[in-house]
Amino acid sequence: MDDKALEVLNTVFGYSEFRGAQSTIIQQLIAGKDAVVLMPTGGGKSLCYQIPAIVRDGCGIVISPLIALMQDQVGALQQLGVKAAYLNSTLDASEAADVENRLLAGQLDLLYVAPERMMTPTFLGLLEQADIALFAIDEAHCVSQWGHDFRPEYIQLSILHERFPQIPRIALTATADEPTRNEIISRLDLSQAGRFIASFDRPNICYRIAQSTGNAREALLRFILNDHENEAGIVYCLSRNKVEQTAEWLNSKGLTALPYHAGLPAKTRQKHQQRFLMEDGVIIVATIAFGMGIDKPDVRFVAHLNMPKSIEAYYQETGRAGRDGLPSDAWMMYGLQDVIKLRQMMDSSEADEQHKRVEQHKLQSMLGFCELTTCRRQGLLRYFGEQLDQPCGNCDTCLTPVETWDATVAAQKALSAVHRTGQRFGVNYLIDVLRGSENERLKYFGHDKLSVYGIGDDLDKQQWRSIFRQLIAHDLLSVDIEGHGNLRLTEACRPVLRGEQTLMLRKDSKQVKAARKGRKTFDTSKAKDSQLWEALRSCRKQLADQNNVPPYVIFHDATLAEMVERQPQNREQFSRVSGVGDSKLEKYADDFLAVILSHIEQTSPGKPDTAAESLRLFKSGMDIEAIAAQRNIKPSTVYSHMATCIEQGEIDLNEVVRLKDQELAAIQEAILATDDGHHKLKPVYEALDGMFEYEVLRCVQAAMSAA
Ligand code: ADP
Ligand code: ZN
After folding, report:
1. Residue 449 maps to which CATH number?
2. How many whole angstroms separate alpha carbon 172 and alpha carbon 332?
3. Is the dihedral of CA 559, 199, 169, 96 positive or negative?
4. Whole-angstrom Cα distance, residue 192 to residue 195?
5. 526 CA distance to ligand 1 middle (Å)
6. Residue whose CA is closest, atom 27 of ligand 1?
7. What is the mean pLDDT of the segment spanning 528-539?
8. Ligand closest in space to the Cα of 39
């Protein structure tokens, strides 16, 4: 184990240990060897090249096709104190020249480059004069001509190996399938490289698919309010219209929801995306066009109001949730209409026969996935060729086992109704027949005379809709191509009709309510902790605005959550929180510590015995420093004990701190002027231009609340 790498992980990134194969991959590169890395989104790919680039001599060159992502990453690295820059079309000539000079002068650890620039003779020439640590080829699946993200320039990247045979290369992707993997290896000439293929499981994502029995929008709203209030999320809809309507409706319910689709002006899209990144708790309602190139780590939920066309699409879209590893939800609501619509779309597709068959198969798999009565995660991973031995315990079917029932007879009735009415009618009509409705149209066709008329009045409309949905999903019924939604029998239904096959169907829960209620991102059952959470979030937002970066670039949610849990009270303890490296400790510790300390004071004026002990020593004549030394605690802690005692009227302010009348008045005034009900000290501190220590301010504040 190279100590250097671990040290960089600790001091620069503020993390205590490597994850999964990270360490091995990093060693491989530091040793000058190549690597191919397949890891799911959020797996921690970036560190795999960032650390070796920092540890090795020279600059790491990162080829990345997504300009927005590049700026994001460089911004985040600079916050960590890493010498990083990028070269792409957004820079003007003099800015670009400046970056190139820094590269040649050996002043960069990491340089992000767009592929089209990489391949220019000028840039390759420049590289020959520079000291290069490694080449990282991000989004390496872009070499695949069969993939959706094909980039012709990526194919030329094989030149790197020819021109710079000594320099290690690492190719990374989150695309799982084997053909793509093989293409990366052969096209980039990486057959000698170490291969690192991680599991594609995203254990922090909880998969939930609810069967719609009515108003999906209402269900979505309840889901958001119950589980994700004030959190960032993406809601996917199929059409632009539905995007607009849904966003508007969510806004009318008091949420911040912004539409995003290809029909909006580029400026509006840009603005909405920016707000999503920079503000807390923004929901984007989008067509699938949104998400590519968005690297926001704290997306807490992805919701689908329409079913995706394949499991691949579902995995990719839901994968945008929870990159930071914290609990997140993939929530979907689907119903009979989705099934009918998608079936029609497939059947009427212009694609050639072979293509159509592939699409049909993918849709069929997706439908099957929705109707699963066993663990969703097992189903999902199985589809990608991975085996999960135990049910996961973190999906709807695991959390609330699905009840099934023997629906053979009901299915026979439904199928007979289709048959007897000539396979020319849609679901609603068929349900009318089954339930013996007094429908005029039905009488006109003489269908009230059929043997199936009224044989299904033991079930209500919703139950029948559920049955029809599942019959279509199981491919026992097909939908007409003309678009009327008429149902036909398929070959596969015969054994059921003839009574040769039992059919078990899922019992849809009556309520639209999703499977699980009230889980929060972290434990907010203790109200005071969630108060601290909110206070930390607003501190982070303030700093983000000041620095003009998204909040997560200051600290990730995981880091804030750890602050809530551990409540560090001094720099030393603060530095041990995961995600706090040297640079951020320097920049932000004081702000966050002030928030935490002020929170501790408000919520536990107790720790009474320890405060009492400090008070006893103080009254015996020791000063604060001496008490701290004797008790082996920080002076600031002793001060906070004193503040507690002042607040409880056990000691007077002027015994603890000596202030001139004018000074006291100034502090009191500042406290009153800045008070917003949260008793924050930072604004007071600032209002007084840092003239008084926090400890002093805290004691004055305590005296004021004692009064
Ligand atoms: P990917 O590029 O694979 O989607 P990232 O490199 O963005 O993933 O990493 C995902 C998240 O995990 C980031 O927030 C990153 O800071 C965090 N992370 C990566 N490695 C570690 C580690 N060893 N310890 C703690 N957090 C880590
Ligand atoms: Zn499960």
Report:
1. 1.10.10.10
2. 30
3. negative
4. 9
5. 28
6. 44
7. 83
8. 1
> What letter does residue 130 receive in the DSSP assignment?
S
Q: Check whether 59 has a pLDDT greater than 90.
A: yes
Query: What's the 194 CA to ligand 1 centre distance in angstroms?
Result: 21
Q: pLDDT of 91-101, one tens digit each?
A: 999 999 999 99
Which residue do the tokens 């015994």 mark?
655
Question: What's the domain range around 280?
Answer: 205-396
**Ion ligand 2 contact residues with beta carbon within 5 A:** 375, 377, 391-392, 395, 398
Distance CA 379, CA 391 (A): 10
Ligand nearest to the CA of 49: 1
Catalogue the E-assigned strands of 116-193. Answer: 132-137, 169-173
> Phi and psi for 280 in degrees, rounded to 5?
-85, 145
Say yes or no to pLDDT of 679 above 80: no
Cα–Cα distance for residue pair 621/608, rounded to 1 Å: 20
Q: How many A from CA of 5 to the centre of ligand 2? A: 36
Task: Please tell me whether residues 42 and 127 are part of one structural domain.
Answer: yes
537 falls in which pLDDT band (50, 70, 90)? Answer: very high
pLDDT at 521: 40
Residues 532 and 663 in one domain: yes
Let me know if residue 512 belongs to a domain.
Answer: no
11 lies in the same domain as 149:
yes
Distance 203 CA to ligand 2 centre (A): 10
DSSP state, residue 401: P
DSSP β-bridge partners for residue 62: 112, 136
Instruction: Confirm if 346 and 223 have CB atoms less than 8 A apart.
Output: no
| CA of 509 relative to ligand 1 center, distance in Å | 38
Q: Whose CA is nearest to atom 13 of ligand 1?
A: 324
Identify whether the C-beta of residue 153 lies closer than 8 Å to the C-beta of residue 22. Answer: no
Whether residue 187 is found in the same domain as residue 336: no
Q: Is residue 326 part of a domain?
A: yes
Kindly give the number of the ligand 1 atom that is closest to the alpha carbon of 43: 3
Query: Are 157 and 47 in a shared domain?
Result: yes
588 phi, psi to nearest 5 deg: -120, -10
Coil, strand, or helix at residue 428? helix
What atom in ligand 1 is closest to the CA of residue 558? 14
CATH number for 359: 3.40.50.300
- Distance of CA 252 from the midpoint of ligand 2 (Å): 35
Ligand 1 atom nearest residue 16's Cα: 24
CA distances from 294 to 104, 114, 591, 655 (A): 31, 17, 29, 56
- Which ligand 1 atom minimizes the distance to the CA of 41? 4
Question: pLDDT for 446-493, tens place per residue?
Answer: 999 999 999 999 999 888 988 998 898 888 998 876 667 789 999 989
Q: Domain check: are 209 and 192 in the same one?
A: no
Residues 481 and 385 in one domain: no
Length of the chain: 707
How far is 230 from 282, CA to CA, in rounded Å?
Answer: 7
Q: What is the DSSP secondary-structure string of 440-467? A: HHHHHTTGGGSTTTTTTTTS-HHHHHHH
pLDDT of residue 223: 93
CA–CA gap between residue 75 and residue 95 (Å, rounded)? 16
State how many domains the chain has.
4
- Ligand 1 proximal residues by C-beta, below 6 Å: 15, 18-19, 22, 39, 41-47, 297, 323-325, 556, 578
| Helical (H) or strand (E) element with 285 | strand 283-286
Sign of CA dihedral 664, 670, 675, 681: negative
Whether residue 184 sits in one domain with residue 232:
no
- Are 256 and 282 a contacting pair, CB within 8 Å? yes
